[in-house]
């Protein structure tokens, strides 16, 4: 993602739609738009400490004065000027002399615009964090991989301050929309069936906001006929959505198909969810062996879902030794909390805040991001004590 938000100033109605589309495809966030330099400086003067990029289309006569007003009123903010040099060959030079850091001639060429943005980003903005693609899949159907994927994505956004997108890659009968009690306007099936027109801007319109920094692209909740080949369409959707997020979580169904393994192949990190059964663990070992030659072992994260320490012979430490792995994350069996979250249409973190699943999945999030997991503070009882005291003193 581009490290600076963008403010559009004086961009004509004729140019604006195409410019918005090009900026979206170049991972640029448009924060606001103003009709002229005076209104921009007046509105933004109070927030000058946060640097933005000003993209300006200077008018032929008042352009130089507008650029001087912006560069003087919003000190240290970079300016990219869109100039029409066809009628006036000296327009680019004048724009540069009056405060523009980069100049892009009209009509705008997306490649040229991208190069100008790269120069500004390198000079004025800190390097943007690259998107990390995390594929979550199960070793068998019904092992809870979708719950893990949803809870993990929400944890990225709320506990680790990453802009996260969850894409449900189920070919049929998706459940994420119902689990979050949302009614998506567009689904994965809609994008696949119109894949030739899908780009980052189209993908962004299909996202459903769950909370700050967490969005979802849900699969169709029923049966659908696909007009396009699934694998190339799914990979295109991954490429478009990864441009819009810092962490892209793919909920990959356990179908042992080309789709499943192609999606695992493009992921930076793979989370393999299994249960405490011999068949599930055997499949886990086979999947790890299949993935390992093409990726480092530290990018594979085996997860024992619904873990019960009381099951003889299948304890966490014995399983690590038997599987030849240094790490196997155990997520405690808390089906009551998982079911409460589904019934309420909310993430587990909101439906059952004290669920041990949350702490375990935060450890998984830290492992995937390769950061240290911060222990949760103990639950405070001050709120309950205040309520009791208030009740007795009424």
Short description:
This protein is an alpha/beta fold. It has helices at 16-25, 37-44, 63-73, 91-97, 110-124, 145-159, 176-179, 188-192, 200-206, 230-242, 258-266, 278-291, 316-323, 335-344, 348-351, 356-369, 382-393; strands at 6-9, 30-34, 53-56, 79-83, 102-105, 132-138, 164-168, 208-211, 214-217, 247-252, 269-274, 300-307, 329-332. 42% of the residues lie in helices and 17% in strands.
What does this entry look like structurally?
The chain is an alpha/beta fold. It has 2 domains: 119 residues, Response regulator (Rossmann fold), CATH 3.40.50; 238 residues, 3-Layer(aba) Sandwich (Rossmann fold), CATH 3.40.50.300. Helix 10 runs parallel beside helix 11. It is built from 17 helices and 13 strands.
What layout of secondary structure does this protein have?
Blueprint: E1 6-9, H1 16-25, E2 30-34, H2 37-44, E3 53-56, H3 63-73, E4 79-83, H4 91-97, E5 102-105, H5 110-124, E6 132-138, H6 145-159, E7 164-168, H7 176-179, H8 188-192, H9 200-206, E8 208-211, E9 214-217, H10 230-242, E10 247-252, H11 258-266, E11 269-274, H12 278-291, E12 300-307, H13 316-323, E13 329-332, H14 335-344, H15 348-351, H16 356-369, H17 382-393
Parallel strand pairs: 1-2, 1-3, 3-4, 4-5, 6-10, 6-11, 7-9, 7-10, 11-12, 12-13
Antiparallel strand pairs: 8-9
Helix pairs in contact: 2-3, 6-16, 9-10, 10-11
Number of domains: 2
The biggest beta sheet, please? 8 strands, mixed
CATH superfamily of the largest domain: P-loop containing nucleotide triphosphate hydrolases
Low-confidence parts lasting 5 or more residues at pLDDT below 50? 377-394
Give the number of helices: 17
What is the CATH domain class of the largest domain? Alpha Beta
What CATH architecture of the largest domain would you give? 3-Layer(aba) Sandwich
- Portion in beta strands: 15-25%
Tell me the Rg in angstroms. Answer: 25 Å
Widest β-sheet, arrangement of strands: 8-9-7-10-6-11-12-13
- State mean pLDDT (0 to 100 scale): 87
């Amino acid at each position: 993602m581009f490290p600076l938000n963008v403010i559009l100033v004086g961009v004509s109605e004729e140019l604006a739609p195409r410019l918005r589309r090009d900026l979206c495809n170049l991972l640029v966030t448009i924060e606001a738009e103003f009709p002229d330099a005076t209104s921009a400086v007046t509105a933004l003067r109070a927030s000058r400490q946060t640097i933005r990029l000003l993209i300006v289309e200077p008018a032929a006569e008042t352009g130089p004065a507008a650029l001087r007003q912006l560069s003087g009123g919003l000190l240290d903010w970079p300016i990219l000027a869109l100039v029409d040099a066809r009628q006036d060959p000296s327009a680019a030079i004048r724009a540069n002399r009056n405060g523009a850091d980069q100049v892009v001639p009209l009509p705008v060429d997306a490649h040229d615009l991208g190069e100008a943005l790269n120069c500004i980003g390198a000079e004025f903005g800190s390097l943007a964090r690259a998107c990390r693609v995390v594929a979550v899949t199960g070793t068998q159907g019904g092992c809870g991989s979708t719950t893990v994927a949803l809870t993990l994505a929400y944890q990225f956004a709320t506990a680790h301050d990453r802009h996260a997108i969850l894409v449900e890659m189920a070919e049929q009968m998706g459940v994420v929309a119902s689990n979050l009690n949302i009614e998506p306007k567009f689904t994965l099936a809609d994008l696949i069936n119109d894949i030739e027109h899908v780009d980052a801007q189209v993908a962004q319109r299909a996202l459903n906001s769950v909370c700050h920094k967490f969005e979802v692209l849900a699969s169709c909740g029923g049966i659908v006929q696909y007009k396009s080949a699934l694998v190339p369409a799914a990979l295109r959707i991954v490429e478009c959505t990864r441009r819009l997020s810092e962490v892209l979580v793919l909920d990959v169904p356990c179908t042992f198909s080309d789709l499943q393994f192609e999606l695992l192949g493009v992921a930076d990190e793979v989370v393999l969810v299994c249960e405490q059964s011999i068949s599930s663990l055997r499949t886990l070992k086979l999947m790890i062996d299949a993935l390992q030659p093409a990726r480092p072992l530290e990018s594979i994260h085996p997860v024992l879902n619904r873990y019960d320490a009381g099951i003889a012979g299948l304890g966490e430490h014995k399983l690590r030794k038997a599987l030849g792995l240094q790490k196997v994350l155990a997520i405690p069996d808390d089906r009551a909390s998982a079911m409460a979250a589904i019934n309420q249409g909310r993430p587990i973190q909101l439906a059952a805040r004290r669920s041990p699943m949350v702490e375990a999945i935060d450890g998984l999030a830290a492992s995937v991001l390769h950061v240290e997991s911060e222990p949760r503070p103990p639950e405070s009882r001050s709120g309950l004590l205040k309520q009791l005291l208030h009740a007795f003193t009424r």
